[in-house]
Design goal:
The protein has one domain. It is 46% helix and 0% strand. The chain is built from four helices and no strands. It is elongated, with a radius of gyration of 18 Å. It starts with 13 loop residues before the first helix and ends in a 6-residue tail after the last helix. 0% of the residues are buried.
C-alpha cells in the first residue's frame, strides 16, 4: 500500500492503482506466453526464421544507433499485438 499510497491516506486514485498493477504485471511473462506470441508470428509453425524477424524490424534510429541496428521495441509491440508488423 505504501507504494500507491505514499502519504498514508488509506485510499488511492483509480488511475494510481491501474498504473501500479500495469507495472506489476508487465514483467511477468512466462516462457509459454513468449512461445505463444512467437506462434502467432510463425502462423502456428514450430519455427521462425531470422529473415522473417529481420524483414519486419525497422532500422533503429536512436542516438546510440550503430550500423545495422534494428528496432526491437516496435517488433516487440507487434509481437504482443499492440501494433502491426
Amino acid at each position: 500500500m505504501s507504494i500507491v499510497d505514499p502519504n498514508g491516506s488509506g485510499s488511492i486514485a483509480l488511475q494510481a492503482f491501474i498504473d501500479f498493477m500495469s507495472r506489476e504485471t508487465t514483467d511477468t511473462d512466462t516462457a509459454d506466453q513468449v512461445i505463444a506470441s512467437f506462434k502467432i508470428l510463425a502462423a502456428d509453425k514450430s519455427y521462425i526464421t531470422a529473415e522473417y524477424c529481420i524483414a519486419r524490424m525497422v532500422p533503429y534510429k536512436g542516438p546510440d544507433a550503430v550500423p545495422g541496428a534494428l528496432d526491437y521495441m516496435s517488433f516487440s509491440t507487434a509481437l504482443y499485438r499492440e501494433s502491426n508488423l
